[in-house]
Amino acid sequence: MNKEEFLYKMKDALxxxxxxxxxxxxxxxxxNYINSEMLNGKSEIEVLxxxxxxxxxxxxxxxxxxxxxxxxxxxxxxxxxxxDNYDDYNQEDDDFSKRADNSKIHSLFGLKGCLISILMLFxxxxxxxxxxxxxxxxxxxxCIIILLVxxxxxxx
Length: 156
Hints:
The protein is mainly alpha-helical.
């Protein structure tokens, strides 16, 4: 699935369930999120895999909207955006950011590890090539000398 399919499925799942403003806000949010993650080096597939099924995300949006409507209809003294909820949200956002940063670090170390391995193999190849050329340069004359010595011993 690509970004356009993801956004289409989300819009389709939200259509008729929530207002057009909510649909537009969510589509814009996820479009911007996907683009920003891709600018940070992730592939489109990685970002979409991380987000999951757009229908589940849409279901969450619908449920949140229903909860908002229910809360607006009741006369509750509690503010749904209390400091505790805000802190919980920020903590989850911070945890997500840390996981995203760790993912970047792991992929960076993986890339560095591959490059170092390739460099080491290249160095080993150069050393073996040098040793082989030196061995050939000395081995051929030594073999000729041994053959000549053997021939002279037979002649005597």
